[in-house]
């Protein structure tokens, strides 16, 4: 059944590309199918994240263990984000996507830059003044904050919090069942999302910026094959083939929807059912990753920063490139809960090294294509983190058990 779903999504993806290229803009008639799938996905995100994260936090039963889990998860996300943007800068310097281009920027393409929020404002905005309003608005960082504290409260109550824990546990189970129902519609939804995109853009808009698309695609491929493969093999003790095969449905959905949060229900389903990641790990690591982990976006920032610099004939020094790495790594968390996060991150990076903000408009025509590529890597990174953290937790437990046995023997 699982393999059939992967095959169905893949076939829908191929058919969408072929029909989109043949029919052209007229294929937009099937877009309501994609919009319906997106609405179905979005409709389950908030209750799924809230219930699964509450259960994930409360099920640890140990505040110290929860703290260690948080440090490992965020540490892994920051490290792989820094590696991703370094790969992006390297690929950008090798491909030189911005050299020799002459792309006029029309008034319609002008992108208004938005001021990035300060560190203090970003931290304050994580704390909801009204948790119910956060749930209604779908503010993921505030929902995560609320869910974590609910889980902590249940843990501190011990046996007295069993009824509340049971409610969220059953709610999570219900949401997993609904996710399974929604996933049956995935092949039709993927077709409805991909075909109009291919039909609208075609080759005419892709050719001038083909080097940017290729540079990002190759950079993302390298990051996925090298960084994620090594991570899951070395720390998660899992075959990279098993890993990529297990998250294949999530990869196709991520590419189609261009949304890490929108793909979250599928990512959770794939990691738990296909990769056998314990629910207490997946329900904590994945919702957090869908919000703050942006490996693909960080890589995109590296490529785009060099693209803009090359287009305007600006040479970035080594110090400026290090600044790009640091800024993008911090921005991946700092702008997580802000609308148009990708645009704000690009604005922050370009401002930090003095690049013209007009360069953002150059990428506007193909941003949808770039977004599909970078989101796919973001989702892969979330799943890889779940495997790595799960493997690390298991190693720690084995080490503790050995020490206990040694103490008893002594």
Describe this structure in words.
The protein is an all-alpha fold and 410 residues long. It has one domain (32-400): Sodium:dicarboxylate symporter (Proton glutamate symport protein), CATH 1.10.3860.10. 77% of the residues lie in helices and 0% in strands. It contains 18 helices and no strands. The longest helix has 43 residues, at 367-409. Mean pLDDT is 80; it is low at 105-114.
Protein topology:
Blueprint: H1 2-23, H2 31-58, H3 63-95, H4 119-126, H5 131-137, H6 140-157, H7 162-183, H8 186-201, H9 210-234, H10 240-246, H11 248-257, H12 260-273, H13 279-292, H14 295-311, H15 318-334, H16 341-352, H17 359-362, H18 367-409
Task: For the structure shown, list the relevant keywords.
single chain; 410 residues; mainly alpha; Proton glutamate symport protein; 18 helices; 0% strand
Which spans have pLDDT < 50 for at least 5 consecutive residues? Answer: 105-114
What percent of residues are in strands?
under 5%
How much helix, percentage-wise, in residues?
A: over 70%
Morphology: globular
Q: How many domains, as an integer?
A: 1
Structural class by SSE content: mainly alpha
Number of strands: 0
In the CATH scheme, the class would be Mainly Alpha
Q: How can the largest sheet be summarized?
A: none
Q: Give the integer mean of the pLDDT values.
A: 80
Q: Roughly how many Å apart are the termini?
A: 51 Å
Write out the CATH superfamily name: Sodium:dicarboxylate symporter
Q: Quaternary status of these chains?
A: single chain
SSE order, one letter for each helix or strand: HHHHHHHHHHHHHHHHHH
Radius of gyration: 22 Å
């Amino acid at each position: 059944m699982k393999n059939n779903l992967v095959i169905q999504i893949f076939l829908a993806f191929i058919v969408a590309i072929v029909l989109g290229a043949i029919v052209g803009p007229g294929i937009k008639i099937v877009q309501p199918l994609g919009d319906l799938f997106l609405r179905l996905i979005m409709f389950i995100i908030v209750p799924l994240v809230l219930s699964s994260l509450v259960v994930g936090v409360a099920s640890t039963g140990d505040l110290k263990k929860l703290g260690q889990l948080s440090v490992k998860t965020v540490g892994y996300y920051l490290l792989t984000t820094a590696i991703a943007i370094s790969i992006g800068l390297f690929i950008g310097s090798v491909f030189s996507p911005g050299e020799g281009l002459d792309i006029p920027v029309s008034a319609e393409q002008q992108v208004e830059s938005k001021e990035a929020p300060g560190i203090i404002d970003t931290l304050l905005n994580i704390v909801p003044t009204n948790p119910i309003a956060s749930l209604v608005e779908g503010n993921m960082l505030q929902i995560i904050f609320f869910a974590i504290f609910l889980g902590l409260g249940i843990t501190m109550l011990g046996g007295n919090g069993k009824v509340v824990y049971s409610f969220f546990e059953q709610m999570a189970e219900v949401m997993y069942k609904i996710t399974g129902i929604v996933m049956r519609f995935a092949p039709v939804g993927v077709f409805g999302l991909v075909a109009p995109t291919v039909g609208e853009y075609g080759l005419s808009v892709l050719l001038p910026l083909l080097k940017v698309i290729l540079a990002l695609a190759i950079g993302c491929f390298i990051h996925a094959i090298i960084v994620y493969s090594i991570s899951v093999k070395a720390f998660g003790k899992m075959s990279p083939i098993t890993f990529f095969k297990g998250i294949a449905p999530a990869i196709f959905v991520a590419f189609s929807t261009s949304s890490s949060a929108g793909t979250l229900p599928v990512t959770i389903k794939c990691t738990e059912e296909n990769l056998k990641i314990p629910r207490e790990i997946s329900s904590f690591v994945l919702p957090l990753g869908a919000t703050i982990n942006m490996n693909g976006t960080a890589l995109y920032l590296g490529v785009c920063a060099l693209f803009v610099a090359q287009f305007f004939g600006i040479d970035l020094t080594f110090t400026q490139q290090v600044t790009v790495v640091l800024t993008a790594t911090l921005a991946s968390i700092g702008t997580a809960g802000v609308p148009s996060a990708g645009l704000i991150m690009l604005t922050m990076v370009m401002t930090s090294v003095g690049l013209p903000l007009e360069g953002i408009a150059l990428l506007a025509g193909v941003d949808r294509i770039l977004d599909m590529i970078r989101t796919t890597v973001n989702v892969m990174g979330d799943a890889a983190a779940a495997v790595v953290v799960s493997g690390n937790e298991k190693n720690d437990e084995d080490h503790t058990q050995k020490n206990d046995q040694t103490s008893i023997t002594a």
